[in-house]
Amino acid sequence: xxxxxxxxxxxxxxxxxxxxxxxxxxxxxxxxxxxxxxxxxxxxxxxxxxxxxxxxxxxxxxxxxxxxxxxxxxxxxxxxxxxxxxxxxxxxxxxxxxxxxxxxxxxxxxxxxxxxxxxxxxxxxx
Amino acid sequence: xxxxxxxxxxxxxxxxxxxxxxxxxxxxxxxxxxxxxxxxxxxxxxxxxxxxxxxxxxxxxxxxxxxxxxxxxxxxxxxxxxxxxxxxxxxxxxxxxxxxxxxxxxxxxxxxxxxxxxxxxxxxxxxxxxxxxxxxxxxxxxxxxxxxxxxxxxxxxxxxxxxxxxxxxxxxxxxxxxxxxxxxxxxxxxxxxxxxxxxxxxxxxxxxxxxxxxxxxxxxxxxxxxxxxxxxxxxxxxxxxxxxxxxxxxxxxxxxxxxxxxxxxxxxxxxxxxxxxxxxxxxxxxxxxxxxxxxxxxxxxxxxxxxxxxxxxxxxxxxxxxxxxxxxxxxxxxxxxxxxxxxxxxxxxxxxxxxxxxxxxxxxxxxxxxxxxxxxxxxxxxxxxxxxxxxxxxxxx
Lengths: 126, 397
Description:
- Chain A is of the alpha+beta class.
- In chain A, 39% of the residues lie in helices and 22% in strands.
- Chain A is built from five helices and three strands, in the order H-E-E-E-H-H-H-H.
- The longest helix of chain A has 16 residues.
- Chain B has two domains: 137 residues, Aspartate Aminotransferase, domain 1 (Alpha-Beta Complex), CATH 3.90.1150; 244 residues, Type I PLP-dependent aspartate aminotransferase-like (Major domain) (Aspartate Aminotransferase, domain 2, 3-Layer(aba) Sandwich).
- By secondary structure, chain B is an alpha/beta fold.
- In chain B, 39% of the residues lie in helices and 13% in strands.
- Chain B starts with a helix and ends in a 9-residue tail after the last helix.
- At the A-B interface, strand 1, strand 2, strand 3 and helix 2 of A face helix 10 and helix 13 of B.
């Protein structure tokens, strides 16, 4: 049997928000984690304006929970400062999407992608 | 487009898991269940019993005729799983004092694999043949596996996941030459391929009704009687079926299986021709999506089964995306596990590709419209999921 999916997961899986990516350019940062070979991969890209995230795009390879998490996060991160982004933790997504316990490791990959994104946020992106 | 497709009823493309009961079969079964039908115990000597017994014996002849066997060689069971267990455990245990070596393949159905694992626990030595990447067990592999103490070889006719056909006649000839009992699980081939236990040198053959438009809960073990093949029963009781399968015979189920097999044999060629065209239409439509590969041998396969892997699509998301389609990943008989199919792994597929594989199986009631809708749904989901996935290599910003 397939795992259970919460209504939020089904909603984001069926109608993902902000799929795709921003091409490199002024104010664009990008963070990647995981790999297709290991079954879960996230690529997050964001446009930073005035010290805050203005828009996010996501790409995801993984189970429906992972695709939903990428979509959900693309809305959740909007408005965050560099410090707030750095402090983001996976439990935030877990609460919203109710990941099955055995899949929580995949949220750590998502957290890694967020860290990579904040790591790419150099002070000159203001 | 997505709204109209998603509001349409689900499309059943899982005939290899089980088939709907043919309405002609259902009618005969219902007749049997009515008060004026055949409620008597087929083992009773009174008129109620003899009426039921006559129906059981007619069905026995119908099933026997479909595989070129004599009716007394047909033993009613609850299905192919019980038939497999009775054949494998029954023969191996009976002959254990003559030798404790048995042979099968890694890609067999769970009912065979687990029966052989049980024999391993009982001290038997099992040779597990690995088929080629096309899923075919070469008869020479069987010959090489045989030893002086080999008692039994079990190789399925058609694989339940890939639809690949084994050359059981050639394997049977090798076993016959060496005096080794040969069992064939034919759950997936009845009504789809000609079966003849004489020309195929088969000693034991497992059949089930529910994959051939009959009811669930009834099956057959064909057992060679001349010369007699020693076999020990799995259960004990009233001594029905020459003591090999005790228990009151379920007349309505048996009538259903007999009718299903008679219809299946009579209509086999027309059914197969029509289903082959539908499967080809499905394959052309899926292949056009791109990044799609067939699992198993390209031509040595039954008409109704198409097992394909989709590159660059994660398996669970693909299955969830395709939930309007009643299809299987791996075998329905072992679903519940998140593991990649052991059959596809044995064919050399990676875990990832095995998990991104879908078995489409078509049958008597599949229509062109079903196939076209299925292609459209698969195309939509595969394209959508691939578009959301990162490209293979991402330059850092």
